Amino acid sequence: MIVRTGFLIAAGLAATLALTACATDAPQASVDASASATASGEPPKTLVGTWQLVQFQPNDAGAAPVKPDTPDKYELTFLSGGRAAMKVDCNRATAIWEMTPTDGTHGHLTFGPLAMTRMACLTPGLDTKWELNANSVADYRVDGDTLSLGLEGGKGTYTWSRKPE
After folding, report:
1. What is the structure's pLDDT at 33?
2. Pairwise CA distance, residues 16 & 165, whole Å
């Protein structure tokens, strides 16, 4: 009888914890969704999705654009809830992001600190440049399937193309 009572108490406790965990997931999701800086708490559909790097254009006089050897090595995925996932050559990164749209196609955008792997890629790439510049992103502009991320002080622009689903 004692064993059975102990079992029932343990089962009841497990069920309570399971239900509590389910109940706390929903409010957490709404808190995360408000992490992006839009008034509605949801990122505009124009940013959500995966983008592939087309080029980085430094703003130095006469500087040529820097293009990846293979565009699918550099991907930026904006997730709802203010999170971003990145493929940066042979490395991976994650960060939080916040935005303040000025209209439906452009506005202010910032990334939090990157959590990034540090593998030595076989070929020199743009991974270290992006790692250094991601926290300097100041604004964004979406024109159809093209995303431009401007750096603070006009130091350059990253141009991305929406990856087909």
Report:
1. 31
2. 40
